[in-house]
Prior knowledge:
The chain is an alpha+beta fold. The protein has helices at residues 8-17, 21-25, 28-35, 40-58, 83-92; strands spanning 2-6, 68-72, 77-81, 94-102, 107-115. It has a single domain, classed as CATH 3.90.470.20.
Amino acid sequence: MGVDLVEPERLAERLDGNPALRTVLFRAGELTYCDSQNEPEQHLAARYCAKEAVKKALGLDAWDPLDIEVVGGGEPVGILLHDDAQRRATELGVQVAISMSHLPGMAVAVAMARFQDQRAT
């Protein structure tokens, strides 16, 4: 399991202060989705939380935020793992599921790594 919290305003301030950081932290599809929403900073914060939560669930020490991609939005949301994150999940024999939520003042995400042969009940 992994969990993370982020204040959307703080993330927005960092991204405004360093616009190049957007492409260091987020893939193009993540940015396109978030920028199409009424409050993009809330959606970006939730996605960043999800990346941190997945990192924790997989036990990654050093990591690249682009190795963890949040796909979809609303209820049909999922995670795609790339490079080191995918290798770690394969090594552990796990699949990762996430849940995210956000409000104006706080975003949260939880990630669960479960063995591939287990089914949700």
